[in-house]
Amino acid sequence: MQQHRRQPELVEGSLPVFVFPTELAFYADDQASHKQVLTLYNPYEFALKFKVLCTAPSKYAVVDSAGAVKPQCCVDIVIRHRDVRACHYGVIDKFRLQVSEQSQRKALGRKEVIATLLPSTQEPRQQKQQEEKRIKEHLAESVFFEQASFQQESRAASAGPSLLTVFLGLVCVAALMLPTLGELESRVPVYLHLSVNKKLVAAYVLG
C-alpha cells in the first residue's frame, strides 16, 4: 500500500522570497524613473499570495499591492513615486514583500527592497567616473613606481665594472705587452716570454 507524501510543514518566515530588483532608484529629473517595476517569482510547486508593505505609504502608489502568484510563475508589481520633492532626496524607504500559502494567513517568507530618491541621473554617473579615475590614477602610480625601481636596479647593475673585471683587464694588457716566445732581442727574462696562443687568449678576454 502506497503512502502519500506529505509536503513538509513550512515554518513562518523560513521561505525564501525571490524579488528583482532588490533596490529601487528614483530620479527627480527623470520622469520615466518615477515608475518602477518589482518582479516577484514563485519557483515553488504551490501557489503563493503576496502583500506589499511600505515604511512611507504616502510617498508611493503601489498597483496591486496584494495578489497571488501561480506555481512556477511570476508577477510584476508597479510602484510609482508620487511625492518627488527636494526634502526627500537621499531618504531611504523600504518595501516589504510578504508571501504565504493561499490557505494560510501566516507569512511564510518576507523580503525587503530599498527605495531611494536622487536629485539627478548624473550623480551616479559622476560617482562612477570619479571611481574609475581614481582606479586609473592608482594603476598609473603603481606602474610608475615599478618602472622607477626597475631603472634603479638597472643603474645599480650597470654602475661600472667590478674590481675583478678591472684586474683581469690589466693582466691581459700586461700579457699582450710581454715579448713573444722566441724573441732574442729582449731584456725581459725568458720565463716571462709568452707563446702566441697565450697572447691570443688574452686578446680574446679583452674582447
The overall pLDDT average reads 79
Distance between the termini: 100 Å
Regions with pLDDT < 50 over 5+ consecutive residues? 1-8
Identify the strand order in the major beta sheet: 2-9-8-4-6
Strand content: 25-35%
- Oligomer class: single chain
* Rg, nearest Å: 42 Å
One letter per element, helices H and strands E, the order comes to EEEEEEEEEHHH
Question: What's this entry about, in short?
Answer:
The protein has 207 residues and is an alpha+beta fold. It has helices at 122-157, 163-177, 196-206; strands at residues 18-20, 23-27, 35-42, 48-54, 60-63, 66-69, 73-81, 92-101, 109-118.
Structural overview:
This protein is an alpha+beta fold and 207 residues long. Helix content is 30%, strand content 29%. The protein is built from 3 helices and 9 strands, in the order βββββββββααα. The strands form 2 sheets. A 5-stranded mixed sheet has the order 2-9-8-4-6, with no helix packed on it. It has a 4-stranded antiparallel sheet with strand order 1-3-7-5, with no helix packed on it. The longest helix has 36 residues, at 122-157. The protein is rod-shaped and about 125 Å long. It starts with 17 loop residues before the first strand and ends with a helix.
Write the layout of secondary structure elements.
Layout: E1 18-20, E2 23-27, E3 35-42, E4 48-54, E5 60-63, E6 66-69, E7 73-81, E8 92-101, E9 109-118, H1 122-157, H2 163-177, H3 196-206
Parallel strand pairs: 2-9
Antiparallel strand pairs: 1-3, 3-7, 4-6, 4-8, 5-7, 8-9
